[in-house]
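re: ur question from yesterday

yeah so i grabbed the chain u mentioned. its 103 aa long if i counted rite. heres the sequnce exactly as i have it in my notes:
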Amino acid sequence: MKGEARDAELWGLLFLRAPPPLPRGEEVKIVWRMTGEGPLRVRATLADGTAAKPAWGPEEHGGSSWRRPGQEWGTGFVFPKRGCWKVELTRTRGSGHVWLSVK
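ran it thru and got these structure tokens back, copy pasting raw so excuse formatting
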């Protein structure tokens, strides 16, 4: 999926056992590629303020066969509630977000 970004380009690759929407209460691996500069920070929130902290990551990857612009990181999230989650990614230079539906 391509994210919306400012001063960067953002891509996310979901690792799922079934097609979206994402499962609630189960760990979901997401690999990110993002241009820009600096370390990556990731947060996920619902409109009501509920947050899903990464179960792990972001972990920088040295390389892979997934070809998109920017550096690559992996994250694992467990989304505790159903809804439309905004996942925001920020670097020193560059920021962006994607929307994920959780059932």
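noticed a couple things. Residues 74 and 100 are 16 Å apart (CA to CA). also The two ends are 18 Å apart (CA to CA).
anyway ttyl
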